[in-house]
Amino acid sequence: MADDATVTPADIARLAGVGRAAVSNWRRRHDDFPQPVAGTAASPAFSLAEVEAWLREQGKLAGAPGRERVWHSLRQAAAQDAHLPDMLAFAGAFLLFVKRERKAWSSIAAENDDKVAARLPEAVRRALGEAAWFAAFPARMDARRVPLVRALARLADDEGVAEAFEFLRTRYLEQHSRRMHPTPGAVVGLMLRLAPGEVRTVLDPACGSGAFLIAAAERFAGADLLGQESDEAAARLTAIRLALRTDRADIRSGDSLRGDAFPDRTADLVVCAPPFNDRAWGHDELLGDPRWEYGLPPRTESELAWVQHALAHTAPGGLAALLMPPAAANRRSGRRIRMELLRRGALRAVIGLPPGAVPNMAVALTVWVLRRPTPEERPSDEVLMVDTTPADDFAAAAVRSWRRFAGLPGSDGGDDRAVSAAVRIVDLLDDEVDLTPARHLPQGARAETKQAFAAARARLLSRLDELPRSVPAMTALTGNDAEPAAPPTTTVGDLVRTRRCELLQAPPKMEVDQGTSPVLTLDDVALGRPPSGRADPSPDRPVLREGDVVASLLTRHATTTVIGEGGAMLGPGLVLLRPDPQHCDPWFLAGWLRVAAAEARTRGSTGSVRLDVRRVRLPRLPVEEQRRLGRAFRGLVELQATMRDTQHLFEEVLRLGMAGLSTGTLRPAT
Fold it and tell me: Which CATH number is associated with domain 488-620?
């Protein structure tokens, strides 16, 4: 069926409310299961209509999650994935209509489908106006879409209108859109908390998915929210997201630099994560633009064009906070503009974020804090430099440092002298005008005190005293002089098939940088650390339990872990095996998975090979023997963790010692 939506095995599992293993079993055991219509042998795609018909015949749709069925109905109505953005706008417009005119919808819904199709378009347009981002809602509607809108209304009743749209949008981004990287919640919160006093208007001139504006709607109740986005589809979806939360949002599509949608508006707070390294930002077209108050941005300095655009829209006394690449602080081509921003008191702080604060970036980003001076004020002679890398909570340390520097309330608590310093502007006006924070923090502020060195040294010596107690895990293993007997073997796939073990995975495109619940990530497993990701709960995101075995699918992270404390969700790139403890010991299983990953990496021609977990072979042994071997595997893994922690302590003592010697805080004993 050329115009039928297609689904993957993961989609089918969600649609039927089962695990992916069940779908694999259906394909093997049922000759009438639909055949793939697209994709590859490793990643097949099936006709949604054929799959739904088969599931219905088998009675497997009865318990299907309602929102999954709505999502697939939406995809099927779109016919082709290229039309999905329009269908999402259609769904968003209807959900907003339901929010604003619930009584009107109840009246219309009581009619038959033909009458609903006849009455609904006019009712929606009357309630919502002619906003361009709702243009996908038709002036005439086919009655075949009425079951979809009824399903959308039920979903809104069950979960709320905003939550219903968020689910549909998330599914779209996971499966049918280019990968988007919203600014992480911790960074968004940091930038919004920099605002002084009352905020009545917030502008994001490159709003993307709307992360800043949605957070601003919650933080600054009643504020006007203005946003512009060059990608029309993204602008439309962001407009709907905001409209479902507040009546005070105005989102426009278009390029803010070339076609400013708000030329006469100023804001108390401008926040933005502009595009980086954009050589086609409009340099030649905008040579005489009045926004270039601090100098014409060079062709290679698009970020400085965005800085001046933000300042042009900042009300006197207002603040602008922009997420910037580190190179913008020291590129020679931008030296003159940086100098003018400092001289005239517009640049007030540069905050260096720690590596990984914005996960999709290979470099550690910075936040530039700018202020539009009022006509009567005298420019400041200092600028704040903050390097949050050593801080336990980078966002809290940055906000405290800024509010203390700016004389604002909320700066109490925490000593941030090790991460921040006020630097005289005259000291920055040299041939480089380098605004890299770490370069300007006084060594005395950056170096740790002798008490910190003494404490770290004490922790290391204590760990070294404990180390002999960990060694028995290694010395307890003895040589086996007898020829090892080759026991019968089985595979992980056999364990899953015979229900001695359950296999689960997270969605491959799951975002793990913002949400309400912890997520165990690939890096967490590789580094042996607690869950560091965040995401919102979802039925297709497995929650870890004590005794679960988690392994990396990539053999460059040839490691496994057994979960000691459950509650976190499983992240992408990992596989979860949940053994039945009556038949399979978790540590025994984890040990053989690690051995298989190491062997696969050795055989591979590159540094990373994908591990086929189902094919991993392991001995078929009685559970008591498994437990005995499992205890040995566990002892070695715990020894590895102890050695890793000891290495970290060595590095900490080395760092503190070098810093102390360089600043005079420490000196040789003799």
Answer: 3.90.220.20
